[in-house]
Amino acid sequence: MGKKGKLDVTKERLLNEAEALFAQKGYDAVTVREITAAAGCNIASINYHFGNKQNLYMEVFRSRWQPRVRRIHESFINSLTSQNSSSPAAIVQALAYAFLEGPLSDEERQRHFQLIVKEIAKPTTAFDLMVTEVMRPIFKELAVMLSSAMPDGIGQEDLMLNIMSIFAMVLHFNFARAAITRITGREYDSAFKARLVDHIIKFSLEGLGASNKGGGL
Amino acid sequence: MGKKGKLDVTKERLLNEAEALFAQKGYDAVTVREITAAAGCNIASINYHFGNKQNLYMEVFRSRWQPRVRRIHESFINSLTSQNSSSPAAIVQALAYAFLEGPLSDEERQRHFQLIVKEIAKPTTAFDLMVTEVMRPIFKELAVMLSSAMPDGIGQEDLMLNIMSIFAMVLHFNFARAAITRITGREYDSAFKARLVDHIIKFSLEGLGASNKGGGL
DNA sequence: GTCTATAGCAGGATAGAC
DNA sequence: GTCTATCCTGCTATAGAC
What we know:
The structure is a homodimer.
Chain A lengths: L8 H17 L6 H7 L5 H7 L2 H30 L5 H13 L5 H16 L3 H23 L8 H20 L1 H8 L5 H17 L11
The structure holds a DNA duplex.
């Protein structure tokens, strides 16, 4: 809206820096002074361009976060149609890949999930947008995809819990990086990330895969 | 330390209210004014009893959070020895039960996990305590317990990833309550909680359990 | 559209009476 | 040990010059 010229670069820089800082430290912990300093412009600019800090935060979700979800979703659909299978294995594989490797740079992905986790932990107005525009539709879609391939008697709710569990792992392995690094002692590099994708696929399809072995004490 | 008399009730009340508020809203969002008002005492009392707000936060972890971890762990060990099995099924069952039903009241559990999640999302000095005193030892213990019952060739790291995935679900189903309620439309009552325990056990042991079915598109 | 300067307020921490 | 009153800092938001 309005004229899009050279004049909007400040606005764009503000959105970029704001997103990085909000993702990193959370809404309350970030000050407008910090954001404007990072963007190399003046304190008043946030008020001029967005009205106030709250609106800037929402605009980060609309102009940065939401388009990124669409890119992830497209990547998921593409990688699924390029395989010629709608087996659970194929679906989980495409899903884990889209979310953990997919179209996002590592930095983008980290931001993306930090924003999600912070909204889940302490919902604000952006939470509504997250649930109605993203989670609910994607979970519904996955339920439809999976239901035909699941054991026959499975209910909608069981299906939904399965989907949420996969999502839980994807989310966890993205947001608990610090803890995971501290516990495993491994760097969060691309080799480890590839390993995580494999693990999520394997665990989602067969869990511990030891149900037939374990013995009595 | 020091004299334990009627005089420490204020201190205890401060710790209780501080924990509830920190868990709910996070460290930054809570003000000492809020805490002292909830505890029904004066603003200066936090400074008097704990020195400053930071120390109060750490003391919440030491005097409330850490003992609660011990109770959960004891409950886990007890329920495991009362079954006469160290099969993965028994271990996962005892684990899911200890964390989702176990010795904690629903309110306590919610607080407990909110504190964990907030530390994982934005580590402070309490994060060290969490990793070294709790996560690392429990994960190690679980790795030892499980390794004998797992498929023979499994490496330490695979084992650790499996354990972290179970932990991821337990954590997720505790902290994402708002999102889960919004998506499933179900109240987070004890019936639903029991269902979640069953689900976590089932999913941990066999994943989607559909690896043999799904067909080509 | 961008800046400086400042109003107006809320935060943590402290001094000192009781 | 608890209180009131207050200091000082740092925040958002705004007014007004350029």
